[in-house]
Amino acid sequence: MPQTLPTAIRNYAADGHLEIDWSDGHQSRYSHEHLRVRCPCASCRGHTPAQAKVITGKQNIRISAIDPVGNYALKISFDDGHDTGLYDFSQLRHTLCQCNEHQSESRTEEIQ
Ligand SMILES: [Zn+2]
Ligand SMILES: [Zn+2]
Hints:
Blueprint: E1 6-12, E2 17-22, E3 27-31, H1 32-37, H2 42-45, E4 63-69, E5 73-78, E6 85-88, H3 89-95, H4 100-105, H5 107-110
Antiparallel strand pairs: 1-2, 2-3, 4-5, 5-6
The chain binds zinc ion (2 copies).
One zinc ion is lined by residues 39, 41, 43-44, 82, 84-85.
């Protein structure tokens, strides 16, 4: 299956959201807080679901840097100093996306 790649990444630091356009035409949208609390790194997720940390209090978090990693992921750094999250493209495109279309599928998960 061909990899879906980002064609444009727009970071709106002032209102804390990120948009990614994909090579398949989809436009994704994420809040910085959402990406931080769903950080996929080993220290946030643990080695089993039971070890996953519940991350809260990040409403005002901002992305400080976005670095492409190879052709498969973005490394996203946050202004709380956390910079070990590698967000692979399929995860960003399918699992983490908060556009209207995806949010209606995963709304219950967003209520906290
Ligand atoms: Zn993490
Ligand atoms: Zn989407």
